Amino acid sequence: MAKNLSGELHVASANRLRDGMVVFLDEAGEWTTRLDRAAVARDERSAEILLARAQAEAFGVVDSFLVAVAESNDGTLEPLSLREKIRASGLTFDAIAAEAVRYA
Amino acid sequence: MALFRLNPQAVQEPALTLANTDDVLALGDRLDGVKLIVLHFPKFTDGRAYSQARLLRERLGYAGELRATGAVFLDQLPFLLRCGFDSFESEQKGFAEALARARTLFSVVYQPTGDGRVTAGQLRLRQRSAVAA
Amino acid sequence: MPDTHFYRYDDYDRALVSERVAQFRDQVRRRLAGELTEEQFKPLRLTNGLYLQLHAYMLRIAIPYGTLSTRQLRQLAAIARKYDRGYGHFTTRQNLQLNWIKLEGAPDALAMLAEVDMHAIQTSGNLIRNVTADHFAGAAIDEIEDPRIWCEIVRQWSTLHPEFSFLPRKFKIAITGSPNDRAAVRVHDVGLRLWRNEAGETGFEVIVGGGLGRTPMIGKTIREFLPKDDLLAYLEATLRVYNRYGRRDNLYKSRIKILVHEIGPEKMREDVEAEYAAMKDSALKLTPETIEAIARQFAPPALRSKRTKVPEVEALKLENRAFALWLKSNVAPHRVPGHAIVTASLKPAGAPPGDASSAQMEGVADIADAWSQGEVRVSHEQNLVLPHVAIEALPEVYRALERLGFAEANVGKITDIIACPGLDYCALANARSIPVAQRISTHFAELSRQHDIGDLKIKISGCINACGHHHVGHIGILGVDKNGVELYQISLGGDVDFGKTALGTILGPAVEADKVVEAVDALVATYLEARQADERFVDTYRRIGAQPFKERVYGAV
Ligand code: HEM
Ligand code: SF4
User: Fold this and answer.
1) pLDDT (tens digit per residue) in C76-124
2) Helix/strand/coil for C430
């Protein structure tokens, strides 16, 4: 895994144990649902440290792992892979909204 | 590793230890006089020893102690008991308490096995014949 | 509310299901308290139907033999509203999946299910899964015997089976009671087909080792005729052989189909028969009283014969073209004259296939109470079925379904697409399935065109696991991932109709997501030019071969 990390940006992610929500590790070592609050590792070495921290904070989450991200000029983070984009931002189509369909 | 036995007085010699790939139907006279058979769960998701246990009890009529070793956790207990195990090695916390409760966790069983429990199907038949009588 | 015409739980069934909820509640508590690791907990939650997907937990609820009372359907709607986001996904395996469940809420959701005699037991994990059946069971005109009686017997036997809860891999059983197989029995781990022999007795053909997934295989018959009262002994024998000898060294080789393939159907038959011979006369033998008691509960509703030619229906047919088409595609003959089986299409143009909101579920329940004896079925094509509708009620049922958005006249047509959840939900996916299905169904929405194209089954899976049955689609679409780009591999010629079960053949290189519609268009155009008389798409393909399709697609793409 190490060689893929070099020079790339990463955040640590997992699913929250109690409700399954997608969460990211922030600088304070807390899990947050907001990608914009995630701690970003900027090189291989800090990515390894970030992952180790995520695994140490495993209580309350399931299966932590690193997500490769891109950062735009204004600091907005976006995962590189489609899978992680979808994890971070939800379905790519409109699910049926709860009460969208009414009948008389 | 802690040992839990339903019959603490039972004789444990001679003993036979089997791998879960051994064919119990091919044991022949190796079973003669055996008082303890130890079956193995390499992982708790590897369920071959359940079939071995039932064949030993129900097909071969083995009546001695039957022990589960390896990855043995309390959530398997209802299944283990129904397949004829009566002795368990486990490191898990709370195992003894779980063992005490395991037989009553499910008041209903559907499958006839060698454990002597009356199945839902048999109870229904009895009820029906009681009504008919 | 009308009485149900299928198995009703008694106190034993109820006790077991509620004890199971209590057990799971305790397991969840132990997990949240940190007493169980995820590794220990995962198989426990899976055997209660709880997956962890991309964004949340998913709860898979069993709908045994696809049969629901309206009370149950309303409760499913209520659970989706209370513990999920107000909708659910009906699957090809007669399950309902809720995609946004919380672990904390799961025991309560299961308790609500138990209130209506339902559960999510064994909808995942390496054990015997929810047993599926023909969705027209008990109403079909060609039926020899209602397969659901046997599904219920198998359901009970398989529930918390002590020996078979840790099999090498999952195990799926399907049962059909009709010569026209609507349960895909040849692509299940065990398929059972009821038939009548020359002596006039009914029994089972036992088919073993079918399956889709990574290595699709068509099942082999290991017994031509099994006396019905030996069903459980034979299944127990089969499962025991599999539990002992199925491969556990390689996840991809662990299904029974690989065992059958490696040792050969002959050896499989020998081993199963030997085990069966030893168990045949055990307590597993089903007594006539046991069978009778269950069969009685499936006694069909007492429908009186009615008019088959109804002036209102005939009139509406003339004035409303959509209704006329709907009668053709969504309404099937019923065994009682003057009645029909109506399929509510969960595939309106552009919608996610198989999804229904809580309000829609309640709407279907209202319709079933008014016009279908309070009964609803789930089909393996991801539609809902109203099994007992009087022909004279068809106009009203049509209008009511139309208000729900479920009156699309497309059953069996090109937009009646089966699609798995794909990359939008599924942690194992390579590519999205639902948006592809939506694009195809929007493109082909025009009904008279669909009816002109005729029967054409498109099935889409987001990865090789084949939950969307792409192998047996007339047109199969499989999502693959190439360097982070979603591509779709197209195959042609799959089928699941009995006697014709066939696996599709890959057409050529995978195409990009935005080219899938064009490719399907090209396939359809090729077919329309080449078809003779009323040949189906797949028949034309079989007659003329892949080449003309290939040229058109890869010329056009
Ligand atoms: C979304 C979560 C799902 C996951 C994680 C999942 C997982 C899997 C896996 C791993 C396999 C391959 C098994 C094998 O080849 O041994 C499989 C097969 C299958 N699944 Fe799913 N599946 C999911 C959803 C569904 C849905 C929604 C349906 C029904 C629409 C479904 C129906 C099937 C069927 C029919 C097969 C192939 C038949 C066979 O087992 O041979 N699955 N699934
Ligand atoms: S086919 Fe693949 S992507 Fe689709 S639901 Fe199954 S496992 Fe997920």
Assistant:
1) 999 999 999 999 999 988 899 999 999 999 999 999 999 999 999 999 9
2) coil
ipTM of the complex: 0.97
Q: Residue with the nearest Cα to atom 15 of ligand 1?
A: C213
CATH number listed for the domain at residues C140-296: 3.30.413.10
Out of C43, C165, C290, name the one closest to residue B121 (CB). Answer: C290
Report how far apart, in Å, the C-alpha atoms of A12 and of each of A29, A33, A46 are.
Answer: 10, 12, 11
Query: How many CB atoms are closer than 10 A to CB A49?
Result: 12
Quick one: pLDDT at residue A96?
67
CA A74 to mean position of chain CA atoms: 19
Which pLDDT belongs to residue A35? 96
Asked if residue B111 belongs to a domain, the reply is no
- Report if residue A82 sits inside a domain: yes
Q: Is the peptide bond before C421 cis (omega within 30 degrees of 0)?
A: no
Contact A103 C363 (CB under 8 A): yes
* Whole-angstrom distance, CA of residue C338 vs CA of residue C556: 48
Which chain A residues touch C53 with a CB distance below 8 Å?
A: 20
DSSP-derived letter for residue C345 is: P
B and A touch with 3+ CB pairs <8 Å, answer: no
Q: How far apart are CA C235 and CA C276, in angstroms?
A: 9
- Structural domains in chain B (count): 1
**What are the sequence ranges of the domains in chain C?**
11-115, 140-296, 311-404, 418-556
Specify if A90 maps to a domain: yes
Architecture of domain C311-404: Alpha-Beta Complex (3.90)
Could you name the CATH architecture of C418-556? 2-Layer Sandwich (3.30)
Atom of ligand 2 nearest to the CA of C423: 3
Domain contains B48: yes
Q: Please, which pLDDT band fits residue A98 given cuts at 50, 70 and 90? A: very low
- Tens digits of residue pLDDT in C359-372: 999 999 999 999 99
C133-142 b/e with 16+ CB inside 10 Å = b? bbbbbbbbee
Helices within B55-108 (DSSP H only): 77-83, 95-105
Contact B123 C12 (CB under 8 A): yes
Mutate which of C91, C467, C501 for ligand 1 pocket (most atoms within 8 A of beta carbon): C467
Whether A84 is covered by a domain: the verdict is: yes
| DSSP symbol at C219 | -
**Ligand positioned closest to the Cα atom of C431:** 2
In order, the DSSP letters of C182-200 are SS-GGGSSEEEEEEE-TTS
- The nearest CA of chain C is from the CA of A12 a distance in Å of 15
- Rounded to two decimals, what is the model's pTM? 0.94
Which CATH number fits the domain that encloses residue B89?
3.20.20.70
The answer to whether the CB of C465 is under 6 A from ligand 1 is yes
Residue A16 phi, psi dihedral angles, 5° rounding = -70, 135
